[in-house]
Amino acid sequence: MISRIFGIIVLSWAAVVVLAQSQSADAIYIHGKIYTEVGEAAAAGAPAPLGSIARAQAMAIHGDRILAVGTSAEIDKLRGPQTRVIDLGGHFVMPGFNDAHLHLADAGREKLSVNLIGVKSIQEFRQRVRTHIQDAAPGQWILGGGWDETLWPTKTLPDRKDLDDISGDHPVFLDRVDGHLAVANTRALQLAGVTETTPDPPGGKIDRDENGRSTGLLRDAAQGLVRKVVPPPTHDQRRQGIEVALRDLAEHGITSAQDYSPAWENFQVFEELEKQGQLTARISEWLPFDDSLEELKRKRMSHPRSDLLLHTGMLKAFMDGSLGGHTAALLEPYADDPQNSGLPRYQPRTLNQMAKERVLAGFQLGFHAIGDKGVQMALDAFAQAEQAARRQHAKAPDGGDDFRLRVEHAQITTAEQILRFKELNVIASMQPSHVLTDMRWAEARIGPKRAVTSYAWRAFLEEGVMLAFGTDYPVEPVTPFRGLYAAVTRKSEEGKQEYFPEQKITINQAIAAYTVGSAFAEFEEKAKGKLAPGMLADFVVLDRDPTAIPAQQILGTKVLRTVLGGKTVYEVREPPVGDRR
To answer: Can you tell me the distance from the alpha carbon of 343 to that of 326, in angstroms, rounded to the nearest whole number?
Structure first.
């Protein structure tokens, strides 16, 4: 695997420049601290700390690719009469972040609706909803989300009664921060036809009071009872939300996004932006695993996989819910809810058959699995699918024989499951910033024994499992620096609480997971994840070097410039980062 990921012939900087001199650069970046790539040890999961890191002072760009890297004097020789020269002023440059797991349409929707992220009490929750209703048209649906009751003094879940007396004739439907629990008011439940006799759907739960009536809380698949009657957003609303989310990516140095915004209309918005030259991040758009094979093939064929700016990617399925909402599927009951082991979303026989069919059709699979039972379901399905693929010589999305099957989140795992990841070559697609939120209550949910191997980044690396990092935006803030901080410290942002520090990893390993690992997870390691000749010119300029500062200072890192395919898509006009001729 290592030779396939890092199969670039290593040349001296001078030799690279000689080879490049037949072309003049469109732009050269000089006087920087350029982190060109991480070593094989970090990206491939070696347990030892990373050794030497390749660095350069300057970089030349031609078209959307890197032409050469080297010293400022060497790269300056590639300047032509039209070459733009950017003086980096000694700032740190690294490959653009590749967020391996996020939800752009949801992020945009949250920013344009009732934003409940960070509310500190039920009173503040109600006030934000009330304020939004004041400007709403009569009878308009009130949507939004981001609330987290674990931040509240009483830590009591909201219910329909908390919404009914402030909502009037408005139906209200508000997601919890993890997206696996939502609260609806009585009007929304009426429009959805949810009554005392409505059964719990498979993979979902309607919370009920002592009279059997819905409290308004809908867990996982039960949310679909209300979602099906919510008017879909218009095309303009979708585009506005996605544009807001894309600006957020550019501002935080994210040049590639592996996205799950499952409505096909969202992909059509991305296509529209691409055609108009306004797509400011590379998008690999996941498709719903539950769609029919015919529908999945149609969507895959609708846009060329060779388009490095936009294409469809893996198939996403949900094995379970969330730990915060007590719906992640566990092998043993919750420590703080002994009658509950979570909500598995599939029957194993059905899941295994669907997984096999889709792998044989050449699709990559990525299964959301947070609890250890959910992880077990995913690994069992992957084992059967891989076995069938080998027997029938099926081809992966890149034409090879490695399907790069992925478990998304993999938060609660056993030691045996981590070994099985390696055995099956399964990628652990994880979001380290979840620890910053979950450490307040995770051990109470699962108990100390299971907590030891939870969020186990180091254990995965030590077994040689490929890590791909993301944020799960908007579940967590989109900033990758929060994820880097979490990965290397496993401490709360104020530094007062620590969560099983033996699972910390090095800063270079964390950067590798956010660049090389994420690129590998989407079959793109030959085009991005490193700053080397021939690679895509996707990079970010930072105000500090995260590899050379105390970990606490990583949180304050600012992006000064984000470059996608050689074009600046975000810039802070702050000397000395500027252009000159």
So the answer is: 8
In the prediction, which pLDDT does 514 show? 97
By the 8 A CB rule, do 400 and 93 touch? no
Average pLDDT, the chain: 91
The set of residues, in sequence order, having a beta carbon less than 8 Å from that of 54 and lying 6+ positions away, is: 35, 36, 37, 39
Using DSSP, state whether 535 is helix, strand or coil: coil
Q: Do residues 482 and 433 lie in contact, with contact meaning Cβ atoms separated by under 8 Å?
A: yes
Please, what is the angle between helix 235-251 and helix 104-111, to 10°?
A: 100
CA distance 39 to 53: 6
Distance CA 318, CA 329 (A): 11
Domains in the chain: ranges and CATH: 2-95+536-580 (2.30.40.10), 103-227 (3.10.310.70), 314-521 (3.20.20.140)
Helix (H) or strand (E) segment spanning residue 486? helix 480-489
Residue 71 CB burial class (10 angstroms; 0-12, 13-18, ≥19): middle
**Pure H helices in 135-184:** 160-167
Residue 17 has pLDDT above 70, yes or no: no
Per-residue pLDDT, 573: 77
Residues 6+ apart with CB under 8 A from 259: 102, 103, 104, 283, 284, 285, 286
